[in-house]
Structures are given as structure tokens and as C-alpha cells.
Amino acid sequence: MSVPELLPWLNGDWGALWGHPGGLPHALLLAGPAGVGKREFAEAVAMRLLCEQAANASRACGECDSCRWFASGNHPDFRRLIPEADVEEIESDEAPPKAEKSDKKKSSQILVGQVRALSDFVYVGSHRARGRVIIVQPAEAMNPSAANSLLKILEEPPATVYFILVSDSYRRLLPTIRSRCRMLPMSRPDAQSASDWLAGRQADASKLLGVSGGMPLRALALVEQGWGKLVAALQAALGDVDQDEMSLASAWEALLKNVEVFAMEDLITLLQEWLSDLISRQIAGRARFFADAEAIHRRLLTRTSIPALFHCYNQLQTARPLANHPLNPRLFLEDLAARYLATFATPRPTR
Ligand SMILES: [Zn+2]
């Protein structure tokens, strides 16, 4: 596995890591948005660290016993600290979903017991001579006691133990943890390299780059979760502003029901992105999230005004905290639909 080949936009980060004059730190913090490739990068670093033949900064050999164990998920000197709720997803080798459906049985936190359970691994010698590697992912999932427990290890790390913390939102980490890590912010791909990369894998995913924040691995995950059809259906529903709120709410309800990894909060996010596109289409002539909806955007813009769009955007922001547990989901959707449709009933200012 080679990061430069897999994810070309991380090439520079890879070189910077191995070329650092201080060598590799005991605790590395990979920071960046979901879908930029942090997990793949972390695994490539771990594999390279454990490889028994890699002599320089380039890559793991992929052929030694260590590399083979790593690839099969059985390396005795490698651990992954993840929330219980993510275990299945990680094992099925899929990129993280946009928002998880809640599953009350499994914790979405990394718990203190999981960190304590590492102590034998950390403090007893390694199986092979190369050292031991622990990926903590996502690091912000550690609850405060887990984080404090990890901090104790990071304060006096054994010589050949390497922690790789992976975080979508590193500001949520304890400052004391952050200060023990060397942070490597992951470089984002530019629009061209993101869509080039996707073109060779899953061309449909290119259409989802906008709603993925330009992150190709996230777009890939979303297309596998049925978001291609979802976004097309949503665009069509939002383009019809002559329907009543019941029918728009029904369209949303159907999407929420039929697409597994699509929650009410995601709907609000997409609606806000849609409104933000209308605003920037009007002001700057381009859209960021739904780039291929230009015809619909242009038509809708003849029916509304910038202040009305901002007003609706703010109303959605106010509704967001209620999105995960609305008292009555159907009424909640109808209310959102009514507010959205009202935005396009406003006559355009003539002055
Ligand atoms: Zn190797």
C-alpha cells in the first residue's frame, strides 16, 4: 500500500512526515475533514512503521511477514482504538457515513476501559522488533476519562510505541492531548484532482463531490449509500415550489425512510447547502454544493429574493437542534416544507 499512489493529494504530507528532522513522533495527530483520506493515511503509516524491509521513507514493502499480517488484519503489534459502534463499519472496510443512525446498544465513544486494556500491549515488549502502533480513530470519540487515561501513556511513552490519532475535529480534543501530539493537517485535494481520482473509480460519485465538501472518499462512501439517487430526488422535489407542504414533506419522508444513512439532520444540512447555493448563484454566478442544478437554481431565483433565502436559511439553523428528536417527525417536516415553500412565494423586490 502506498499513499502517494492511492491518494495523490496526500503525497506531500507523506513526504513531510518521513522527512521530518525530528523523526517520527510517538504521537501523531492526523487532522482534516471527513473523507480526505486520514484513515488510509494512518494505516499506511502504521504498515510502513511495522514493515520489516522498508529501508527508507518510501513505503511498506507489502511482502514481508509483517506486511502480510497487517494486510490480513492480524498484526500482533498493531491495535485500533475505535468506538464499539464503528467496529462493524471498519471491518466492512467502508468509509465513514455522513451521519450515523443511532444505535443505542453500542457506544459511539471510546471508553476508558478500552484505553486501560492497552496497557499490556503498550508496556510489554513487541512481538517483532519493529515496535507497536495504535491508531485512535476518531480521537474526539474518547470520553474525558479515556482521554485522561491515554494522556498518562502519552506523557511517558515507551520507546517503540507509536500512537496515530485521527480526527475530523481536533479542536474537540483535550488541549493536553493535542500538546502531546505532532499535528499533521491533511492536504485537501483540489477540485480537479478530486474528480480525476473519482473518475477512475466511481464516476457517479463526482456529482456528490459538492455535498461531500470536495472530499473524494466521502463522495465514494455516499454513492455507495445511495446518495446519488437521493440527491437527484431531492433536487427535483426542491425545484417544484408550486406543490403544497404536505406533498414536499412526503417526498422528504420517503427519502428519510428509504435511504439508510440519511437522517433528519442530514436533510437540514442539504437544505441549507441548497439555499446557500441559490444565494451564491445569484451573487457570484456559481454554486458549490449542487453544481449540476443550475437550471433549477435559475428558475427558482426568479421567484425569491436574497433576504428571503437568508431568512429561510436562518430558520433551518434554528430548527437544527430539534432535528434528531422532533416530537412529531411528520409535523416537523411539514413545518420545514412550509417555510421552504414560503421563500418562493415572496414577490421579488422591484426596486
Ligand atoms: Zn514489509
TrEMBL record:
**One Pfam family cited in the UniProt record for this chain:** DNA_pol3_delta2
Q: Which domain of life is it from?
A: Bacteria
Q: Name one GO molecular function term.
A: 3'-5' exonuclease activity
For the biological process aspect of GO, one term held by this record is: DNA-templated DNA replication
Q: Which GO terms describe its cellular component?
A: DNA polymerase III complex
Q: Which InterPro entries does the annotation name?
A: DNA_pol_HolB, DNA_Rep/Repair_Clamp_Loader, P-loop_NTPase
Q: Per its record, how is this protein called by name?
A: DNA polymerase III delta prime subunit
Q: Which organism is it from?
A: Sulfurisoma sediminicola
